[in-house]
Amino acid sequence: MEMLTAFLILVIILGFKLIQTLKPKTSSSSSNLPSYPLIGSILSFNKNRHRLLQWYTDLLRQSPSQTITVDLLLRRRTIITANPENVEHILKTNFYNFPKGKPFTDLLGDLLGGGIFNSDGELWSSQRKLASHEFTMRSLREFTFEILREEVENRLIPVLSSAGDGGRTVDFQEVLKRFAFDVVCKVSLGWDPDCLDLTRPVPDLFKAFDVAAMISARRATEPVQAVWKLKRMLNVGTERRLREAIKTVHVSVSEIIRAKKKILEIGGDVSDKKDLLSRFLAAGDDEEAVRDSVISFIMAGRDTTSAAMTWLFWLLSENNDVEKKILEEVSNKESLGLGLGFEDLREMSYIKACLCEAMRLYPPVAWDSKHAANDDVLPDGTRVKRGDKVTYFPYGMGRMERVWGQDWDEFKPNRWFEEEPNYGTKPVLKSVSSFKFPVFQAGPRVCIGKEMAFLQMKYVVGSVLSRFEIIPVCDNRPVFVPLLTAHMAGGLKVKIKRR
After folding, report:
1. Is 447 flagged in the annotation as binding?
2. Strand 383-384 to 376-377 pairing
């Protein structure tokens, strides 16, 4: 089977080489992206697939409209934009013309099924209403905060203390990933994976999510989509690994669901069951629908906050003046001796500005795509045909001089304030358009867990920095890797020093 796959791929590549002798047609994109008859821009795409982020960003900078078009073999063309007006049109103004679409849901359908982050139409709408209701409940916020406090004080801080006292180097990205997985599983499933016990291996579910997310994301970067579909049909290579990982995820979550149902049946009243799984089961959905829903929420929460915090801690190591201002903000909270309180976190605007600035430069989700249901015209004049893939690009948007100014490449949390914050005065955060900064999406699909994410990140950053210095041991600039959730290649190796 592997030989057959390799042969077919070789035939496709040889075909590309033959077509290279053809004269490229003039691209409709102002970026002058080479486009050949039949195969479009696939040669340029394949040449740059290892650096798509920078390639797209460079092309978008050259484009007067901050929009480019990429044509690929056997695929509808892709329109990529870093134009905030286009983003608003896609995510809000003409929302119903830009669903995720079947080409996108196919990529993640094996893993996420019909969950909220991989569905459209009525299926999405019904899940969104239920989830939105639950996320506005005070009981869920309080439940989440108590889990967060317990995980930080009883696990994260002791792990870092032990590493610091022992003089050990730790991968801080890995520690934050384990922490985030614990929190999201407790909130979503009412199940404790205890990943921060570094003396034993992580659960199979943790590893399976990693593998499934990695391979599902790489499907999207295949120059010829038929390649991964053929491998899936033959059950070979990465697609075989993906199938095994997805089976582990589905079986593990289904077992947790069945155990939870038994507990609820024995307990009778579900009003005191605060995790999302209990709430979804109480709503009467069938087991498969509940499984898809909680898997979607785990995928959304497991690595996004840890990725944002990883990049922020690295940026702070390069910007000591910013770290000092965070410490000033934290130390001004009277309840710090008992741990940061809920109201303290809401008022900590400087940490929020730092998090926003880190996510501007290193967004947890580098790009997101929709598919046009009907022909349309974007505000910048780009014509969209039915079936076109339309991608908005947070990574590139954070690097556009026309969006953020000439100093876009500088880590400047003060850009998020109305005016320069001075010591002793309370800084006022700007109201920045979510279409200029779409890291939590925007419009009807805006992330319903946005405020909980900021709550978690503020608590961790404040609690850790007030106790420890985080000192990276590698001088090389880290590499940003954009999978389903972006991460730092090789992790963030650090030494921990008590303050």
Report:
1. yes
2. antiparallel
Q: Tell me the DSSP string of 106-158.
A: HHHHHHHTT-GGG--HHHHHHHHHHHHHHHT-HHHHHHHHHHHHHHIIIIIHH
Residue 94 is assigned to a structural domain of this protein:
no
**What is the residue-wise DSSP string for 296-312?**
HHHHHHHSHHHHHHHHH
For tokens 């094996």, the residue is 110
Question: Is 79 strand, coil or helix?
Answer: strand
Q: Which is nearest to 188 in space by CA: 303, 306, 294, 301?
A: 294
pLDDT tens per residue across span 313-372: 999 999 999 999 999 998 877 444 556 787 888 889 999 999 999 999 999 999 999 999
- Give percent helix, percent strand, percent coil of the chain, each to the nearest 5: 60, 10, 30
Domain count, the chain: 1
Domain that holds residue 288: 125-498
> Is residue 342 situated within a structural domain?
yes
Tens digit of each residue's pLDDT (9 = 90 or more) over 297-326:
999 888 899 999 999 999 999 999 999 999
Question: What DSSP character marks residue 29?
Answer: S
Residue 70 lies in a domain: no
Report the predicted TM-score, pTM, of the whole model to 2 decimal places. Answer: 0.89
Contact indicator for 458, 345 with CB cutoff of 8 Å: yes
Look at 21-35, 158-172, 230-244, 294-308 and tell me which has the smallest mean pLDDT.
21-35
Q: Is 28 part of any domain? A: no
Longest dimension (CA), the chain: 72
Confidence grade of residue 77 (pLDDT, cut at 50, 70, 90): confident
H, E, C per residue of 232-295 = HHHCCHHHHHHHHHHHHHHHHHHHHHHHHHHHHHHHCCCCCCCCHHHHHHHCCCCHHHHHHHHH
First to last CA, the chain: 58
Provide the 3-class DSSP secondary structure of residue 357: helix
**What CATH number is associated with residue 320?**
1.10.630.10
pLDDT(12) > 60? no
Cα→Cα distances 5→17, 75, 108, 227, Å: 19, 20, 22, 8
CA nearest to 33, candidates 86, 78, 74? 78
Instruction: Decide: 80 and 43 in contact? Cβ < 8 Å.
Output: no
